[in-house]
Amino acid sequence: MKYGGENNKDGIVKWMKNPTAPKQAEVELPWSEIENDVVHLTTETFDSFISSNPSVLVMFYAPWCGHCKKMKPEYEEAASILKQDKVEGMLAAVDATKEKDLGDKYNVKGFPTVKYFQNSEEAWDFNERTASKIVEFMKDPQEPPPPPPPEPAWQDIVSEVHHLTDDTFKPFLKKKKHTLVMFYAPWCGHCKKAKPEFASAAEKLKDEPKIAYAAVDCTTHTTTCGEHDVNGYPTFKYFNYGKNSMKYTGGREEVDFLNFMKDPQNSLTSPPAATPSPAIFWSDAPGHEHLHHLSDQNFDIFVKAHRSVLVLFYASWCGHCKALRPAYAEAGAILKEIGNEGVLATVDASQERSLSGKYEIRNGQFESDYNKGRKTGDLVAFMKSRLGEGQEKWSDTPSKVFHLTKETFSDFLSQRSNVLVMFYAPWCPHCKKAKPEYQAAAEVLSQDTNNKYLAAVDCTDTQDLCLQQDVSGYPTFKFYRHGHAVVEYDGSRSKDDFIEYMKKQETDKIGDETVTSGEFMANVKQEL
């Protein structure tokens, strides 16, 4: 049997517990076959449609294009709004992988390309991709402002930085006693920030004949970058007459580049400046006493002891880290004040090397990268959302799903022969998506006389129980027969799929007594 699990540790372990053949990939219907208000055009229909409609927006797309897939629902929504509001304009689409002649005719070079046609003529390109912007434009089509001119290539900007190629790299370095080379990529944000500082340092030392600041564009000169093990941008390396290369890891401001090149040999061998302890680094940030400073010794213990932890991995020399200090400390204080169970912690990644490759930890396991805003309100809102604060508990919503706890789990399952249990977390987006389908299936199954039940367990309230049941991700579905886990359900998560799965399970004729979820919850309360 061919391996059908995910290519990671957890996926392999999960698959070995229940080996199954890989699922066949679902065939995606062509967009033109899905009912919507977008008009799908071909080479045969394009000209007649454009000539008969005075205002048309056309999206040229490719079925495999990720940006196109993201834009499709926005485009469909805009088409529906325009139809509902009786706006004269029409939205159309062309699969440019099939209608190649149309793509060539209108110079389509990438996907999606959106063009506006007015009175049968191509007018201009349109670059917005949200429903609201599309509707706004179609209600009053106006030529958009021209795009900003492209940023000039660094080598085209006059400076004292020497731009080297695969051919000139070695000959140039052989002639200079001290050369600091910046290996970069034009699109790299950190590179863009370092460029003016690097160029300013080069300007200050331009009269020093033995010193040079050089740069190599690794997107163009791949051979040189490969030879020097460049695997991230920017990478700085020092060369002495083209030999004895050493990686530069100092600061990226003008003064840092200047000080280094004034005495490169000693700069490379001198001990680094003392790093302030976490207590000192955070001491001037109001609210710092509510932050938890972690190390390799206490990290695992701490995150397992707390329900929700946001960890900031920082370096004391990092400008962004310094800028974040006040907001991060204040957010920690606010969470403490409002009684939120989430806590904020820090790790000095420059000192705790064994932890620097890890990310946020929740309930002892990696949960997610934080990629929201960096203001106090953003941090507080994020931590509230992770715990589902302010949201109604699923168990408080009337339904035919039986909500089990540590106290009721074993008794409920042991008395029933066909139970599917959904182990979930309130903050889990996949769980939120599955809940209404699961509830709808439970409603249908509650009318079945063959005693089939759908239950749920909130793993944020019953962590020990979920660990005992080998729950390693959310949602996890397990089928139980008389209290014993028979198999893990890994099918689709629609109402019909849940119902079909439960009906396929053999019914164990033991005379289960049918009860309603309301009766069950009443019994639970009496037992408690």
Task: Explain how this protein is built.
α3 (66-84) crosses α5. The strands form five sheets. Strands 1-3-2-4-5 form a five-stranded mixed sheet. It has a five-stranded mixed sheet with strand order 6-8-7-9-10. The protein folds into four domains: 31-139, Glutaredoxin (3-Layer(aba) Sandwich); 154-269, Glutaredoxin, CATH 3.40.30.10; 278-386, Glutaredoxin (3-Layer(aba) Sandwich), CATH 3.40.30; 394-527, Glutaredoxin (3-Layer(aba) Sandwich), CATH 3.40.30. The chain is globular and about 90 Å long. It is 36% helix and 19% strand. The protein contains 19 helices and 20 strands. It is an alpha/beta fold and 528 residues long. The protein starts with 8 loop residues before the first helix and ends with a helix. It has helices at residues 9-17, 43-52, 66-84, 100-105, 131-139, 169-174, 189-204, 222-227, 254-262, 264-269, 278-282, 299-305, 319-337, 376-386, 409-414, 429-445, 463-468, 495-504, 517-527; strands at residues 39-40, 55-61, 90-95, 113-118, 121-125, 162-163, 178-184, 211-217, 235-240, 243-248, 292-293, 308-314, 342-348, 361-362, 365-366, 402-404, 419-424, 453-458, 476-481, 484-489. It comes from Paralvinella palmiformis. This is Thioredoxin domain-containing protein.
